[in-house]
Prior knowledge:
Blueprint: H1 4-18, H2 26-49, E1 68-71, E2 77-84, E3 92-97, H3 108-111, H4 115-121, E4 123-128, H5 144-157, E5 164-169, H6 171-182, E6 187-193, H7 206-214, H8 218-229, H9 234-239, H10 247-250, H11 258-269, H12 273-281, H13 288-300, E7 321-326, H14 334-343, E8 347-352, H15 365-373
Parallel strand pairs: 3-4, 3-5, 5-6, 6-7, 7-8
Antiparallel strand pairs: 1-2, 2-4
Amino acid sequence: MSQGPNKKISATSARSHTRKSKPVSSSGTLTKLRLVVLAGFCAWVYQTAIPPPPKTLGSPDGLLVTSTRIKLRDGRYLAYEESGVPKDIAKSKIIFLHGFGCSKYNNPYVTTASPGVVEELGAHIVSIDRPGYGESDPDPDRTVKSMAFDIEEFADELNLGPKFYVIGDSMGGMIVWSCLKYIPHRLAGAVLIAPGINFWWPNLPSNLTNEAFSRQVNQDQWAYRVAHYVPWLSYWWNSQKWFPSFSIIDGSTAILCPSDMQALLKLYGGMVSNQLQMMKSHPTQQGEYESLHRDLNVGFGKWDFDPMDLKNPFPNNEGSVHLWMGAEDLIVPVTLQRHIVQQLKWVKYHEVAGAGHLMFNVDGFIDAILRTLLNVKN
């Protein structure tokens, strides 16, 4: 019997058993491991990037409401505090808009204005908790534009009359730009105190913005980029502990010039511990996302207008717009502010030598603002 086929099978089987196995590529395994780790990291970031819901105001289990509030058409409440002469005899009604990380209680017209000057000028001042701050309900749809119409509706509900003044400090000053854009017919005048500047406004020259941006502390440069390009990541960026968050949130003093440090000592140095704790905790009591983080996203996100395209709201000099800026401000670039007012000739510019971002705490400063705005001589 022929054994040829069996021999052929045996030879083939032998060769298959003696053939060496191909080694697994270590680089391929490493690549797969990296992808798995990256996917896990991205999933973790996504989960931690989702902000917690804000703490509820006024419910049986929620935060206590201690302020007077006005209900808007959409059901949200705005909290406020009134000062100055009584509304029914006031010569002028002023709405004050606080800055980043503050609340209606950070009202310089109560803390530093001279009562005699306020009475002499007949000024009635209303300080608002901006949405998400203090005891004002958050606005999940908040934009630069929406706040202007909130103010208009608020003024009507409070019976402030057909025209009123607006004064905004720092990021509150950004809202004043919005009022000048969307409700100029309701304004008797406006003041911007060291108003925040969005580095991505189209009409800002790139050479000026690049230079000013480079002078910001590194951690703030990153916070601004996150707020502008990936706002959904703002909560994670400003709450994680791996990298420095926005300097004000982080409690850094690197952004304060010497006069600002003195202003802080003056503002908080004389407070008792309970009052100091309230001033620090009240602004963000509903959570930092709806106050601080959303503020960054709105202020440094994409605007639907550029302030430098605005027209004079008072062409017949029936009112005026003033911008006050400290020459030593390390938070808002004075070089960009100078360029803005050069383009908007109708804005009256006041630059204070030696002053920083917190210049409203300087003695006599608020009195000067009121006299200038209301066109009253010393």
